[in-house]
Amino acid sequence: MASTYTSNIRLTKQGDGDNPNTWGTVLNDQVISLVDDAIASYTTVSIGSAATVTLSAVQGGSDVPRSAFLHLKGSVGGSNTTISLIIPANSKSYVINNVVSANTTASDIIKMKTASGDGYDIPLGAVGLVICDGTSVHSLNTKGFNLGTAASADIGVCTTNVPDTSLADIRYLRVSTTSNVTLLGTKTIRDGSFIISTSSRVYNPIVTVTDAACISVNFALGNSFLVTIGGNRTLKAPTNCTVGQGGSIYFIQDGTGSRTLGYNTAWQFVSATVPALSTGASDVDMLVFNARSATTIDTVLLKNFDR
Questions:
Q1: Nearest to 52 by CA among 92, 111, 107, 97
Q2: What single string gives the DSSP state of each residue in the chain?
């Protein structure tokens, strides 16, 4: 009976009476060595200018796609901004180290796929695990680790069911972040307060506000704002206001000047007197504010910054 081969990593399955006097050689070279490759072999694949790089399968013999780890090197871009890396349509996982560089733009990609199935775009510089189900190639995501998110964490014994957690004791993966924070000097979190030493600096970027007939400021975006007004305007009540939030809004006259500014009643002024803006072309005024409540914003207008 002739030898056959396993369906996924193509190992030799010797038939009865096959390979007389060489049975041990076939077992060593076409089974044991190939299992070793499938578990631990680290193989380099060079990516060139061709649109397709095919990793051919060999039945019962050494081949590249049997390797556990694939190191991708070379460059992509120019005439082909997408290069397809074709793997056998067999169930298997691969650890990919993608050090391929982009020749033209960061959008140049390596797409790992079978000849006919859906593929996965391997990020340049990525090291990660991909899985072929025999038809298509998939990546591993945070759900694949079965660690969940902060919203679904269900651990611990305290009333909130989430115990105190340190950086050395992470229970779940961060999915995304919405801002970048730079801290210098001593940082301390104590009793719900964030304390920064005097050797540090804290700043909030100035957020440019869209000029319109009714100017809207979203306090969730920061504490410092700037708008250049090109006509007579009204300042609406701020959105997403938090009690105790303080900051400032720069109002800059355009090149024509003489623009006026009215205010929603949420904005409160000293002695109930609503001030007028400086009227010169390109004049700069600053409205300093502090939220006494979500609908009451105490303000002072500092006028005509110039020298």
A1: 111
A2: ---EE-TTT--EEPPTT-STTTHHHHHIIIIIHHHHHHHH-EEEEEE-S-SEEE----TTS--GGG-SEEEEEEEEBTTBSEEEEE--SSEEEEEEEE--EESS-TT-EEEEE-SSS--EEEPTT-EEEEEEESS-EEE--GGGGT---TTT---SSSTTS-----TTS--S-----S------S-EEEETTEEEE-TT-----PEEEPPP-SEE--BGGG-SEEEEEE-S-EEEPPPBS--TT-EEEEEEEE-SS----EEE-TTEEEGGG-PPPPP-STT-EEEEEEEEEETTEEEEEEE-----
How distant is the alpha carbon of residue 36 from its chain centre? Answer: 36
pLDDT tens digits, 191-241: 555 555 556 667 789 999 999 999 999 999 999 999 999 999 999 999 999
- Tell if the pTM clears 0.70, that is, is over it: no
The conformational region for residue 304 under phi > 0 = left, psi -120 to 50 = alpha, else beta, is left
Locate tokens 């780890």: which residue?
69
| Structural domains of the chain ordered from first start | 4-140 (no CATH), 206-302 (2.60.120)
The tokens of 29 are what?
Answer: 């070279």
